[in-house]
Design a protein that fits this description.
- This is ATP-binding cassette domain-containing protein.
- It contains eight helices and ten strands.
- By secondary structure, it is α/β, with parallel strands linked by helices.
- Helix 3 runs parallel beside helix 5 and helix 5 runs parallel beside helix 6.
- The protein binds adenosine-5'-diphosphate (ADP) (2 copies).
- One adenosine-5'-diphosphate binds next to helix 1.
- The site of one adenosine-5'-diphosphate has 5 residues, from loops.
Length: 228
């Protein structure tokens, strides 16, 4: 069965904005799905609902079979989220940041997974550094480590390369591919076609709250008349 099932999702904010309009989508375990669309399309709203941060106006979402409204804790445990804004305490160390995130899920501060996680993100040698000493790329990898601290099966990345330079963007692409190779299902949002094309197995195009199409990237590129 799909790891995430989204059925007829609707979101209307109190302001009256219709942010999502009847979105249905199934996400398979182990894939990288890019949600591609311009600013205001509804991408962050969709991710926020799946992660249980925003209440839907209608429809249903199940994560690993758990309904996000009725069984929020079990659903949320399966998910890690890297939000758009970077928010790290500059005086905290890499280890303390990640241990804090583990504590939120009742995980012990240390175990073999923690070391493996930090090594896979090339952060192990920096584990005692304060985050203010880190490069922009390392800070982003710390945010990913925090999101993966409780060993979720699905990772959400909201605009992972917004406002970063080309070198860092490429670094993020490699990190995402590496995580997928470790079996993590990844959903990311972007407004760059190139980024969706580089990173994803499937691309969902979203605009004005509607999921216009979802296709393997090879087919989508065909429709845009591009080779890759
Ligand atoms: P919900 O119905 O999900 O609780 P609300 O409509 O109450 O959402 O809005 C949540 C918060 O986001 C409010 O404080 C609101 O002022 C703020 N907000 C309103 N418009 C926007 C916007 N366009 N983008 C981001 N936040 C907004
Ligand atoms: P995207 O992530 O694709 O840029 P969003 O999901 O942030 O799109 O926004 C979708 C629409 O919902 C936009 O019109 C936005 O202004 C509106 N919106 C987003 N968050 C809120 C909020 N909390 N309250 C009211 N309106 C919001």
């Amino acid at each position: 069965p799909p790891i995430i099932q989204i059925e007829h999702l609707v979101k209307r904010y109190d302001s009256g904005t219709a942010a999502l309009d009847d979105v249905s989508l199934e996400i398979r375990e182990g894939e990288i799905l890019a949600l591609l669309g311009p600013n205001g399309a509804g991408k962050t709203t969709l991710i926020s609902i799946i992660c249980g941060l925003v209440r839907p106006s209608g429809g249903a979402v199940r994560v690993g079979g758990h309904d996000i409204q009725r069984d929020w804790r079990a659903a949320r445990r399966m998910i890690g989220l890297v939000p758009q804004e970077i928010a790290l305490d500059p005086f905290e160390t890499v280890l303390s940041c990640v241990r804090f995130s583990r504590g939120l899920y009742g995980e012990p501060p240390d175990d073999p997974y923690l070391e493996q996680l930090l090594r896979s993100l090339a952060l192990w040698d920096k584990r005692d550094a304060r985050t203010r000493e880190l490069s922009g790329g390392m800070k982003r990898r710390v945010l990913i480590a925090k999101a993966l601290a409780h060993r979720p099966r699905v990772l959400f990345l909201d605009e992972p390369t917004a406002g970063v330079d080309v070198a860092l963007r490429r670094e993020m692409w490699l990190v995402v591919r590496d995580l997928r190779a470790q079996g993590v299902t990844i959903i990311l949002t972007t407004h760059y076609l190139e980024e969706a094309e580089e990173m994803a197995d499937r691309i969902g195009v979203i605009n004005h709250g509607r999921l216009l199409l979802v296709q393997p990237k090879s087919e989508l590129m065909g429709e845009f008349g591009k080779k890759h």
